[in-house]
Please model this.
Amino acid sequence: MTTKTRVEIPSLQKVYEKYFNIGAAVNPRTIESQQDLLATHFNSITAENDMKFERLQPEEGHFTFGKADTLAAFARENRMKMRGHTLVWHNQTPAWVFQDSNGEMVTRDQLLHRRKEHITTVVQRYKGQIYCWDVVNEAIKDEGPELFRETKWLEIIGEDYIEKAFEFAHAADPDALFFYNDYNESDPQKREKIYKLVKSLVDKDVPIHGVGLQAHWNLVNPSLKDIRTAIERYASLGLKLHLTELDVSVFNFGDKRADLMEPTPEMLELQAERYHQVFHLLREYQDSITSVTFWGAADDYSWLSNFPVKGRKNWPFLFDENHQPKDSFWKVVQFL
Model:
């Protein structure tokens, strides 16, 4: 009788400890259901939703820190770093922020005051626990010549709403690192817009320390060439780079299939090769990239399982639904 040798599974975070932090987006449910996986393979976490404006201050002056505190405690207990996400965003911001007591639009000064109060309260609460924040999220317009996305922040405050946010955050915690975060960061047109914005902040001595590349990618897009160009472009500003929301969808953009109950072998093979190529590239830029955070940890939970096709399952991570390593995992860790 022969006994099959058990394969030792290396810790992802330990494999990469000389390169960059390895993070995962979490929520109160996944820190329970994925607790062992997170503790073994990740040394950084980001709150998926529970530190966004609507979750922390749903009503003026009424802060609800319970779930965020739970996530911060999980990070402390497991000796993980924590990224803060996010202080200013056009989504998940309650309507009251932009309205006065009569339901009319607030003035610039009123909105700046409210934002300063929010940022100061939140950042100071987690001072010494959260080492970096995504201060402003997705402020750039995807297409066309306009630089900024149309938002209430822009409409009421003006273009300096971005630099003001960084200034408020820095005043609340001078020791933390502050990032601008966006998606489609490797698309050539949007890349140049992000670069233009961030360079303008650097030139004004705004306290910005890094660029967050969301990295919501798929099996073929963006190209490795475009990813490399984006990394080099942002790194040329002398800032730190974080991949903040990495996942690799098994569906390409525009694929509307919704009937698959599990990924095909071809999907998994292509995904493994994609992760292999991406991490080979990221290791080349370890002097600039200091953190890589997945927007989840395992395939049993992902925002992509309901987006952009409602109800469709996706399998975008290194670990499967049973928290076991996929071929993608082995491609990422077996590179020496």
Confidence is low (pLDDT under 50) at residues 1-5. The two ends are 34 Å apart (CA to CA). The first helix runs from residue 12 to 15.
